[in-house]
Write a structure and sequence with these properties.
Layout: H1 14-24, E1 30-31, H2 46-52, H3 69-83, E2 93-95, H4 98-109, E3 115-120, H5 126-132, E4 136-144, E5 148-150, H6 152-158, E6 163-169, H7 181-194, E7 197-201, E8 225-230, H8 231-234, E9 243-248, H9 251-268, H10 273-284, H11 286-308, E10 315-316, E11 324-328, H12 335-346, E12 348-349, E13 351-352, E14 363-367, H13 372-386
Parallel strand pairs: 1-12, 3-4, 3-6, 6-7, 7-8
Antiparallel strand pairs: 2-9, 4-5, 8-9, 10-11, 11-14, 13-14
Helix pairs in contact: 1-12, 3-10, 4-9, 11-13
Bound molecules: pyridoxal-5'-phosphate.
The site of pyridoxal-5'-phosphate (PLP) has 13 residues, from α4.
């Protein structure tokens, strides 16, 4: 009755089973995996946000496939303010989420069974997005040696006649590594050589921990580039469902891509009017929430370092940006077994590295947006478990 593409193994794994058990027992668990910014005690401009959704113009239905002009201009202004470069307001195509943006771009570029190259470790949702688009994921490794870097020899080995695009996550989740400028040039060269598009996920672009803004790929002109972002992270408003695709590159390719994206978007017309009309304000409020979030990320990271300095078993990997930190732990068991043990014995929830496709055992991922008091106590329970 069902399609092969939805033939997922849906039975809970050991880790989710252990979470269900803890919940059923009513145990109080310190959750160091939170990725929902609306539940970590941040002071949003709630009145401004909610009243922006009550624009009377929302009573008019104006079906614009790429989104209403004022919302696309707000996206263009975001890039202008980010690094003083002009995105044509005609270029952004609005979507309800970055996931929908991925789906549109995969539909645009790939025939069934075509391949896209994705970084490993990275974001676990790729697998489902690719399955739903009948696309095959081929991982290319990121290597860690005093910071993360793209393994270009492996990228060259992974490409074949079915490859359509390279995905980069800038900065990557969960490694927190940005694509460096020499890597950007090498990616452009690679895509040019094999006639591939670049698909760059920049949802965490603005969360550089050193406060130095990193360049966006929305300005990349060398090859056909689709830059995805949205307010789920930029303004910490995942519930508002507003994201976008910015297309850049050689003129002819960009105009063909946009004409086709227009049809894909027109087929769904998925954005609602209130959110589109509120887009300028929903983007504007990032200026208040981002400093609060960056403070949170930095103070939790400092707390982690303070606790790590007092022991020898665990260390953290370098992180440049984003909302996560990766902990290197003694690989005495699989990451999943260790995460289950931490939950059962220490009542602390962390993500095992294999969740993000780390190639070997010995990694845990911690969310840096966690409430500071929970983070403090949670980290101390994690480290205690490895203290011999
Ligand atoms: C790298 C990355 N891209 C995209 C998303 C999801 O964004 P959206 O809510 O806009 O679909 C996430 C969410 O955690 C993410 O980590």
């Amino acid at each position: 009755m069902f399609s092969r593409r939805t033939d997922w193994k849906l039975t809970p794994n050991l880790f989710t089973q252990a979470q269900h058990e803890a919940l059923a027992q009513g145990r109080e668990v310190l959750d160091l995996t939170v990725s929902n910014p609306t539940r970590v005690g941040l002071a949003y401009d709630a009145d401004v946000i909610v009243s922006s959704l009550a624009d009377p113009r929302a009573m008019d239905y104006d079906p614009q496939p790429k989104g209403v002009r004022s919302a696309r201009e707000a996206v263009a202004a975001y890039y202008r303010q980010h690094e003083a470069f002009d995105v044509d307001a005609e270029s952004p195509v609005l979507t309800t989420s970055t996931s929908e943006g991925y789906s549109h771009v995969l539909r645009l570029l790939c025939n069934p069974e075509d391949e896209i190259l994705v970084p490993r470790p990275s974001y676990p949702l790729f697998e489902f997005l690719a399955d739903l688009a009948d696309v095959k994921l081929v991982p290319y490794p990121l290597l860690y040696d005093h910071g993360w870097q793209i393994d270009f020899p492996s990228l060259y080995q992974a490409v074949n006649h079915r490859t359509r695009a390279v995905v980069a996550v800038h900065p990557n989740n969960p490694t927190g590594s940005y694509v460096k400028s020499e890597e950007r040039s090498a990616l452009n060269k690679f895509c040019d050589e094999y006639n591939l598009a670049l698909l760059v996920d920049e949802v965490f672009l603005d969360f550089a921990l050193d406060g130095v803004p990193r360049p966006t790929f929305a300005a990349n002109q060398e090859v056909l580039t689709f830059t995805l972002s949205g307010i789920s992270k930029i303004s910490a408003l995942p519930q508002m469902k507003l994201a976008w695709i910015v297309t850049s590159g050689p003129d002819e390719q960009v105009s063909s891509a946009l004409a086709r994206l227009d049809v894909i978007a027109d087929t769904y017309l998925s954005l609602n009017a209130p959110v589109q009309l509120a887009a300028p304000m929903l983007l504007e409020v990032r200026k208040n929430i981002q400093p609060l979030l960056i403070d949170r990320l930095r103070s939790n990271l400092a707390e982690l370092d303070r606790q790590l300095a007092a022991q020898k078993e665990c260390r953290r990997l370098e992180v440049e940006g984003g909302w996560y930190a990766v902990l290197r732990i003694p690989a005495t068991k699989s990451d999943e077994e260790l995460a289950v043990e931490l939950l059962q014995k220490q009542s602390v929830l962390v993500h095992p590295g294999h969740f993000y496709d780390f190639v070997s055992a010995g990694y845990l991922v911690l969310s840096l947006i966690t409430f500071p008091a929970v983070f403090h106590e949670g980290v101390s329970r994690v480290l205690e478990a490895f203290d011999h």
